[in-house]
Amino acid sequence: MGSKKIEDALFEARPYVEYYDRLEELVRKLWKKAESEEAFIQMLEGELQRSEEPFKTDIRIFLQKFTALEG
After folding, report:
1. Is there a contact between 6 and 63 (Cβ–Cβ < 8 Å)?
2. Is the pTM of this model over 0.85?
């Protein structure tokens, strides 16, 4: 699993998210736990369900950016 994709998605999401530091911390924590990219996405989607707005929107933006990137 390439962390460059994580870095790129965080970079692209940064201008649009309200709680960047919180998002970055969550993303890095889940990325370390994930055994695959699919598992990472599933964990993020789980966090999306549990989160409150506006952080929920931040996660959604990151997910959009992450899934749009290749490899």
Report:
1. no
2. yes
